[in-house]
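Can you give me the bound-state structure? Components:
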Amino acid sequence: MRPDSPLVGQIIAAHGGGAAAAGELVSVEVDRIYLQDGNSPTVARLFAEYGVDRVADPDRVAFVFDHSVIVPDRDMADRVREATAFAKRIGARIYPRGAGISHVIALEEGWYQPGSIVLGSDSHTCTGGAVQSLALGMGASDIAAAMVTGQTWLKVPETVWLRVHGQGHPALRPKDVVLEVLRVFGQRPFLYKSVEWTGDWAASLSLDSAASVASMGVELGAKCVFLPDAPGRGDGLVPIRPPAGAAVLELSIEGLRPRIAMPHSPRNSVDIDLAAGERIDYVFLGSCTNGRLEDIAEAARIVRDRSVHPDVHFLVTPGSSRVYAEALRLGYLETLTRAGALVTPAGCGACVGTQGTVPAAGERVLSTMNRNFRGRMGNPDADIYLSSPLVAASAALIGRIPSADELVCHVDR
Amino acid sequence: MWTGELKVRRVEGEISTDDIIPARYKHRFTDPALMAPHVFENRLPGLAATFRPGDALVSRDIFGIGSSREQAVSALLAAGVRLVVAPEFGRIFYRNCWNLGLPAVEAAVEAAVETEKSALPAEGARVALDLTRGRLTGPGVSVPFRPPAPMMIEMVRAGGLLPLVFARTRPPAAAQAHQDVEPSQTTPVGPQGR
Ligand code: SF4
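Here's the bound-state model for the whole set.
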């Protein structure tokens, strides 16, 4: 790949799509496909309905069981069983319950290769952009068709570049920056497009942070995202340099402080001091956006030798079994548990109301996940706020949203 | 593809696929008929029970953002929805609509009031859709839109993506149940965009 021309076009061309211009419809070869457990039962049903029992290449297909891990319902249990049987029948790779969230596993296990095309039956598949994979979330029919044919159809998207500059508040985290991008620009400049993050800020992020930023591409409305080459991101990546004359969106984060997305949209974020003091009943740390080792390390650092507020339910769900085991080995899970957090097996946790703690009516949840749509966690009468893990862990200690000043003393620990 | 009259059902505000069908149901059921009674239940309680075959959802805001769940489309279809009109759509929802044979039409409903001297399609209004010419019409209503690519129309006529794809990979008789019309062998198969 070359650094100075849109990555999406180069990847499409390398997969049989030719040198297509933005807006053209092309057919491309697909390198890998993964499914999550909310859609794999439907895909199994589609295969049965159409009398198909074969996939193009079972070694390139994975089934991940992440949304219902400790299965809370008999209907869900039956679906998990159907999907497992189907995966075995077609010979696909199975990541069982407890292995983790599909997008976290995909990055750890090398399912996203730089320059590859990966389809996932989940909208946060765009996480693959952290290592420059053209990773696309799709619905069950698209996934079924690609499983059978090894191909998919795409409309070549336009590319928009995004550059962040300036020095933020010491407690500012990548999650806050994405929330700020969404507040400032909304979805319109990104809708259906390929978003390339350029500049020093994007190149300074750790791999975990890059994955966090890439995962929220779908919140921006983007088709796919790409982050630049940087230390720790693996081989085969290129720097990102907008071509001369390209449209580059600029965002200054000079002095920017942590942000809180207010109910019920990630677009609704405010400066932390405008939300400071709001009572919080329940803190959820996890998800494909903020359930990686770095996130759990930060939370452990905040709560070390302290106690979770007696009125707060603090739920921590590592993003994968690998994250879980590392966090265990490094003592983070012990620290969190001693402080009073409830650590669950790896997976999506309480993110989408399919398992884990469903909030009560009137409860206020501060969560590190990526979207806070009404009812997202299983109860439309709960209010969900979003933040970084730093803010979330701090709130768990004091039972309310902290101010920026309160965070600074935590940052210095 | 639905060829009968369409009845306008207005929905207001930004709509996510979580609003259309909460995640829990797609983990419990694969049969869209079992999900249909729950569409919009968090956002617009009671609406599901009023849907009838031939309903056309008309929105002035972005529609179908968020999760990739195709069940948001299959549940709407099972509830009777036969057309969705909005100025813009969540990418995956849009693609899923066409893949399942539900036309999703990007139309600036509000702008049409000025430029076309059209009324806003009111709740309950009867309208007709001309996909090929790109127009939604009814008494006092005339909303233009960019016609979708011919292959998108082809796919909707065939009942969706899979009837086309699977018709090629196995004997036609088995695919027949899913088709209203015979797909042309030369037409490229695809979700048409996004
Ligand atoms: S963690 Fe949440 S957002 Fe990510 S895949 Fe799971 S349910 Fe979806």
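A couple of observations. The longest strand of chain B covers residues 6-11. Chain B is about 30% helix and 20% strand.
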